[in-house]
Amino acid sequence: MAMYMMSAINVKNNQVPNSAAKTRGSKYAGQSIKPLPIHILTVGKTRSPGVQLIVKDYIDKLKPYCPVHDLRIKSNPKNSTEPRVQIENEETGFMNFIKSDDWVVMLDENGKDLRSEEMADMIGDAGNKASGSRLVFCIGGAYGHGMKLRERANVKVKLSSLVLNHEIALVVLVEQLYRAWTILKGQKYHH
What we know:
five-stranded parallel beta sheet, two-stranded antiparallel sheet, alpha/beta, 35% helix
């Protein structure tokens, strides 16, 4: 996909005039989107108060667009010291929640790198093209996701080229979900 629309390029200086360097918006901008309920599943125990405050703020901002549910999967439920056992036990929590008709987005450091407009397109695709009843985002624990969830996910997305703590990933995700909906609705949040 082209990231920029270019009408005239100054070949000598290899520059794009400012009027031609516009990023594209969502393919769904201004169209009706079926608002699937969003379920955000994260591995973890008690969150820091600051993170919880930010997450609640963005979830409240998302309420006019779609229902959002923030759910936690118990981290390392069997208190194992083996990473493989931790992953398997946390994965069981994810898989027990996911329904067969859910559209599942697995957040992973090796997933597809999306721009904000592409996140908006993904939400639009899920609402308008997928047969799912819910849009489920999965944020794994310290050792990532297991094979069952990797196979079940409809799409794998990374939020950053950096590895993020699950609480930071959650903050980035809820902000990007809000940004995506404002892009879809043509509102003035995203520049």
